[in-house]
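User:
I would dearly like some help making sense of a protein record. Take your time, and here it is.
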Amino acid sequence: MHYLHFDKEQLVNLEYSLYREILRSNRAGSYLSTTLNGCNTRKYHGLLVCPIKNFGGEKHVLLSSLDETIIQNEAEFNLGIHRFKGGTYEPKGHKYIKNVEFGIIPKITYRVGGVVLTKERLLVEKEEQILIKYTLEEAKSPTSLRLKPFLAFRNIHQLSKANMSANTKYKKVEKGIKTKLYEGFPELYMQTSNDSDFIAVPDWYYDIEYLKELQRGYDFLEDLFVPGYFEFSLKKGESVVFSAGLSEANPVSLKQKFTREMKKRRGKETFTSALENAAHQFVMHGKNTADIIAGFPWYDSITRQTFVSLPGLCLAFNDSTLCEKILDSYLKYFNDGFFPDQINATKLTYNSADASLWFIWVIQQYFKKKNNPDDIWNLYGDAIKRILEAYKNSTLEYVGLNKDGLVYANKKDTALTWMDSYVQGNPVVQRAGLTVEVNALWFNAICFALDLADMVGDEEFISEWKHMVKSVGQSFLKTFWSEGHGYLADVVKGKQADWSVRPNMVLAVAMDYSPLSKEQQKQVLSVAKRKLLTNRGLRSLSPDHLRYKGLITGSPDERESVIHMGAVYPWLLQFFVEAYLKIHKRGGLPFVKQIIESFEEEMTEHCIGNIPEMYDGNPPHVGKGAISQAWSIAGVSYAANLIQNYKE
């Protein structure tokens, strides 16, 4: 039996299937995403969603959905499902779904009377093409299949409306058509492997309603254009492959191409293999470059999240050369010791106080894997030195060192740490000053660099920086530690310390080099375990705080205002688990193992085989934000690997 499975009796239940989503990527920026029953509930859903070069590489929904109709003895059974204005579902093809299997790729089985039809979908790796294979498993009389494509041709953040500007014409190509609704877009080729008739019935379908957007407080009604439909006959046991892509396909080879693509993919027989499968979808391969998409469906890459994710993702990839390729891609944007917030942005900004320190942390994890100091120093020693010098000499006027050697970060109306939510242009969490995780990363970076330099004999660097270890360590304790509180302050500005219990202090325990004594580490971890830990990650704020918000609901601004005031983040688990095992050794295994294993049930609850960006702070910790987040998958993968290594 496959690892990911579902209650067959519940598949026809809209409450069950609409809230479970499917996501796959082509590892080059494109993705397909919909719900378990095929009814799109987000404007971000679509069967072919691609970055369009003419529009700055932003993602656009081209093929929104594809309705299938079984025709037998002149009776028609539409397998599609759409939600229209007012909550009306039409057609109601979900009632024909009898099974959904998540093996190598998802496989949906429909039964209509004596007809059994299966559907399998995949994105071609590194190409803008979706292949959908239909197989007529059972049929007692002549059967035809009709395919009706719904087109959007719009940015993922927008919605399309019926208009006179749309080019509703098409041109015939081999066993299909090509069309594009608006100038600037590429042609969309839709073809079938078998001979088929395309019947032109151009029409707009009005007021398709996206339930998730309605609930999220955004515009939620869309008009989609249908150019017509493909129709062909099928014999029992026969398969046909439908292709939609940005270049013309060879219909004769579509079945072989589908088989080749299937062979590239791994099954999801275990929790670990499901995590590995999810990890691969975030990689975005370019020409001689590679990057990590922060999350689906609406994020591009985010530098900080790329660096935090890399060790966990590369463990899943088991591919250290890919890690190197990604790091080298980012070094092209390295400027005076700092990295831009997003390397794919039209205008580069440098508003991260910690991204460069996370870069050094990645090198540290890479060194543990490679264990060759000369290679690491030759590849990245210069970058490490430049980063440390940049903080020391304040090459960014709003990030630098204070007189005690600690890193401060302060820029008006700008969030410089990972807690970077905004409402009406203002950061929700004011963390200007000395932040605990940035300075934990800073201390760790200095110590790691010195140890690496010692291994390769870089005496000049050692002479310049060795005095910093003691002074920064002492300053850290003096600034952030309080015997009275028994944990670390989150932020210190001037003489004012913020003693809100937040998860950032856990990083000071998890780092390989920590200024905290063992007893202090135990105390910090004890507070975090008691007040922040859940079975889905660490809360961003303790529930006993006056400003704690345990539910992420309401308008966009209302949600944005609470996501760092109590929401649970899975990515932080890797640091909690690392810190916990560091303190409790093998004795801590049963406890952390139980937390990580609790994610197994999550793999079939929200986005199938994936972990979302965050969860409500209050039980039952419902998934929120992006349906699949790179550092969430990476954090759980990293923690699971740590546990496995301790067991062995």
Notes: The CA atoms of residues 377 and 452 lie 7 Å apart. The radius of gyration is 26 Å. The chain has a mean pLDDT of 94. Residues 459-480 form the longest helix (22 residues).
